[in-house]
Predict the structure.
Amino acid sequence: MNYKMMGRFISRTLMVEVVFMTPALCISLFLNEKNSYMGFILSMIITLAFASILYFFTQYAEHKFYAREGLVCVSLSWVIMSIFGALPFYISGEIPSFLDALFEIVSGFTTTGSSILPEVESLSRGILYWRSFSHWLGGMGVLVFLLAIVPKNEQNSGFTMHILRAESPGPNVGKLVPRMGRTAQILYLLYIMLTAINFAFLMFGGMPIFDAVCTAMGTAGTGGFGIKNDSIASYSPYIQNVCTVFMLLFGVNFNCYYLLTLKQIKSVFKDEELRLYLGIVAGSILLMTINVRGMYDSLSETVRHVAFQTATIITTTGFASTDFDLWPSFSKAILGCLMVIGACAGSTGGGFKCGRALLIIKSLKRNIRKILSPKKVQVVRSNGVGVSEKVIDNTNAYLSAYVVIIIISFLMISLDGHSLTTNFSAVLACFNNIGPGFDLVGPTCNFSIFSPLSKIVLIVDMLAGRLEIFPVLILFSKATWRK
Amino acid sequence: MKILIAGDGKVGMSLTRKLSNEGHDLTLIDKDGDVIESIVEHYDVMVVQGNCASVDVLKHAGVMKADLLIAATSADEINLLCCMTAHGLNPNIHTIARIRNPEYDQQVYAMRELFALSMAFNPEKQAAQECERLLKYPGFLKRDTFAKGRVEIVELRVLPDSKLKDVALNDLGDVVKCQILVCAVSRDGEAVIPGGDFILKEGDRIYVTATSHNLTVLLANLGIITHRAKNIIMCGGGHISYYLAERLLKSGIKITMIENSKERCEELATLLPSVDVVYGDGSNQELLESVGIDSCDALLTMMGFDEMNMIISLYGQRCKVPQIITKVDHTENRTIQDSLSLGSVICAKELSCDIIVRYVRAMQNKTGSALSIHGIADGQIEALEFKIDSKALHCKEPLKKLKIKKNVLLSCITHHSKTELAYGDSVFEQGDTVVVVTNQGTVLRQFNDIFES
């Protein structure tokens, strides 16, 4: 293992984090929120000091870097980044327990949006901004940002590929253009532009500027931290509709947007994953509208709420416009399924990913046919191109790991004694980076009811969900640390 | 620049490393999925799997916006088709194809015209030319010429009984009694550009710049025997051996070629009537003895396996063959190769890479690019020749006053027809040519890049 190179990467990540704390600090200073700006200043000094020491010791790192280092480096960066990112919450005293602060920031960076705070409106603006900003940063990935800005002479080797693979969601991550640095820049450019458009639409609807910034960032990262206790429910129907549309947009593979800028519109709409995603969204809206009819005053209000809930769950954002925990159980079952499926690969959303679901269904179909005619050679196709057996194996392995983690986490947090629905939906909500679940962790409730052990389990689940399981799993493998 | 490389064999891989280091946007096309996967793990490039001569694959790889296509698959015909297709799709693209079948050798120039190729390269032929040069001017392990042959960079090994052993470079002039400059030293596989207090050790390979006249004096003073080879044994009858034999026969050298394929033996015997083609295993010591390894002037190991070539060369060393040339394809194991005395080591892919890199750099800047580029010390060090044009900075200023980049050494200056090694007081002016030595990490696209900005 090339520990030095990893240390250097982590120290750089922390430095980026310090830079990104500055806007939050400025807001606190501007509004003269004493606790919170002291919290930020102290956290920045501590983080910077740690990063500098790490940088000093890792100056002469060798450039040899393999898949193993890439994966470990990404997951370690996320863990360490979260620990330092939790400092402002803790030092400012707004979240008195460090474990709670860590849960909150991990929930932020992994774009989960599950909160341990019973009410958020009493928090200072600086802290609220940092919470929402963590979504935006975690959505596209901090290390991808780092790749976009590292100097050219350091991106020569292929190790950058391991990092993109480990941090970007999806079964087969590829570059858009030959240079990794340029790919990362394009991704961030698209991301920033979409966020800005979202912000403009929210402002147009009369949302206060601070609320619009935080909501736009929460939507962009498909995070879900609101700055109001009732999330988005108290805003106008226009704003809720804007959120619905943009949540769905951020759940689309970013490659599609890149292809759109290249004017390859046809190939975008022929994409099977995108079609599946849009199909699921349309189908769910239709079924749930029929199911919950009569609960709201008018059809338009029903459709608005149903569409909002569909978008917020399938893209794994986690905003709320109404308490869906009160809906009939068929609708809740649909929402539960949407939680698992998740958004498209290569988007900022979490979950199992539509692309993987598609592969699993196709390979299942193939295996059934194989039983009927064993000698026939059958290839799984995606977008008309044959998918290699290796990718299918990986997807199946991913499914197994996914199920195993859910089962283990479910058993562990059940020790707290809450209801079955609470426990199961809490695991689903955290592991798929959604936010709210059902029952005691429903949209109007929060995660403060859990014991410290359960919180730790859920923190690991959130990280595993965001980094697509394997980078986090290998941290626990003995073989990783063997010399 | 946007460059496509089709075919990722040995040459493709070397090119990927070099061109990626120089900051170009590379897209690689190969039909082998495993190759593609390993390349993505190691280099920051884009890859496309498929047949490089197909329109779809080329379009997918971005041929419409590419500046250059290098076709280096194992089949000449595919390379040609690939270049022609690319040129048809994008008339502005430059194309370079590997054409290495000796049957096409005569028609390469015609093909370049016909198929609008910008360049054709033949690694085996280049390797043969290199071997020929080494055989014609023995005494050195490697020899590169600059300034129309007036300056040379040669490679020498510091042997246990050498006068050069344990000498600091500052005192070198007194030992060898002629004007030479050591511009690079390769020790344990690591090449460095040494300073004046660098002390030479046994086993070092040193790269010396000097005028041709001084080199003759150097050889005489070091007591290295030099006489041209008259009687040569070649192990392996591949393309390189064929090209080389064809060239050497003109100068009346006696050649014995050992080849272990009966069919190929017959083919060679037909093509090269005055060569003694022996059917048998070149690694068989008895066979080598029977063809007279003890009395030959030079042994060339040109078989398909590096290991085999190395072992035969070591055996040749045992038999005290005066000159040995070993063909090596995998230059990754530099440390091992350095620790063995294999004589001159030639690597076909590195030679081809050098000329393609030169072409790419020339494409990039129309003026001020290098006249020639030679990779030395297994490609770890580059020697470049520049013409000083009107845009060159710091003309007529003594070198000691200039701020030249770390790891860059200005080794000699040719003024009109007079060449001198560069010292602190030397100056260059417009119209001169200079030779600059630099390590792999520093990319010199034009002469002015040597100065600290």
Observations:
- Chain B is about 30% helix and 25% strand.
- The CA atoms of residues 224 and 336 of chain B lie 25 Å apart.
- The radius of gyration of chain B is 23 Å.
- The longest strand of chain B covers residues 408-415.
